Amino acid sequence: MRAFLGMGLLGSNFTKALINKGEQVQVWNRTTARATALEAFGAKAFANVADAVKGADYVHIVVKDDAAVNEVLAAAAGGFKPGAVIIDHTTTSVEGAKERTKEWKEKGFTYQHAPVFMGPGNALDSTGYMLVSGDQAVISQLEPVLAPMTGKLVNFGEETGKAAAMKLVGNSFLICLTAGLTDMLSVGKALGVNGDDILTLLADWNPGLGVTSRLKRILSAPYDDPSWELNMARKDAGIFIDSAAKAGTNLHVIPVVASVMDEWIEKGYGNKDWTVISKDAL
Questions:
Q1: Where residue 89 sits, what CATH number does that domain have?
Q2: Domain end among 114, 136, 158
Q3: Residue 5 has what pLDDT?
Q4: What are the helix (H) ranges across 149-229?
Q5: CA separation, residue 183 to residues 112, 202, 214, 259 (Å)
Q6: Residues 166/131, Cβ–Cβ less than 8 Å
Q7: Mean pLDDT of the chain
């Protein structure tokens, strides 16, 4: 039997998916109404978190952050059955994941951090990616429990906290991607290009296919073999900024990148490959 703590968009859909697979699930949420809403799907809701985990072999949790995880688990601890396994899907700090792994082991329980790249729809459909790392014996035992919850279980090896790090790295890309798309729409608006026009462009020219090769190029540091000189990239950035200013649209990312470009041009890298702006990150 499982308990699920945190009935937000992910937690509620994870719960529905588990029930659809024939699992018995006890649920809790800080706002009780969100937990009781899952009773219509077959879950058993509890107002007290310690009651919600009683009898559960696996206690899943997905809440806001490190502080919330620590608070909820501390409140639930009195109800844990001996040998219960805590599976934390929350996006947290690396330090928090490491500390909880150690802390709960000392208390006689297994804590496994398993963050996800999954939206609510993925949680319901059991698709997407779930990340794990740490004690490989524990992960081997939990694989039959976790694998049915996701399209792919990705194991990053023995290092405790590595899964937390990889989740944060991935989320940093998603934040930059969305901010970049926002700037692209703003440049398009300034130039009389609408969102449908941009979708048409991307349907034929899909830059997403080049993400891996672009990262490989950055890692190889090909500054003396430019495919796009920094001076030329900065020239284009200037056009974006000027066009947006004339049209009264806002840019959030490009002006910051342009200032970084200026710094590297001042250092004498203007005729180098523009990926030199990532040099300090390597």
A1: 3.40.50.720
A2: 158
A3: 98
A4: 162-190, 195-204, 211-220
A5: 38, 15, 20, 16
A6: yes
A7: 97
Domain that holds residue 65: 2-158
The pLDDT of residue 111 is 98
- Reading the block at residue 3, the tokens are 């308990």
Domain of 179, CATH number, reads 1.10.1040.10
Taking the whole predicted model, whether its pTM rises above 0.85 is answered as yes
The mean per-residue pLDDT over the stretch 189-198 comes to 96
Tell me which long-range contacts 240-248 makes (C-beta under 8 A, separation of at least 24). 240/183, 240/187, 243/187, 243/190, 243/191, 244/186, 244/187, 244/190, 246/190, 247/189, 247/190, 247/191
* Closest of 110, 166, 103, 105 to residue 133, by C-alpha: 166
Q: Which two tokens stand for residue 153?
A: 């279980």
For the chain, the domain total comes to 2
- In terms of domains, do 152 and 15 share one? yes
DSSP 245-271: HHHT---SSHHHHHHHHHHHHHTT-TT
What's the pLDDT score for residue 71? 98
Identify the pLDDT of residue 130: 98
From CA 9, how far away is CA 33, in angstroms rounded? 14
Pairing of strands 58-61, 152-155: unpaired
- C-alpha 257/C-alpha 254 separation (Å) is 5
Residue among 237, 256, 280 at smallest CA distance from 176: 256
Q: Which of the four pLDDT bands, split at 50, 70 and 90, describes residue 183?
A: very high
For residue 159, which of 87, 98, 88, 91 has the smallest C-alpha distance?
A: 98
119 and 224 housed in the same domain: no
Quote the CA–CA distance of 74 and 3 in Å, as a whole number: 15
Q: What is the pLDDT of residue 232?
A: 98
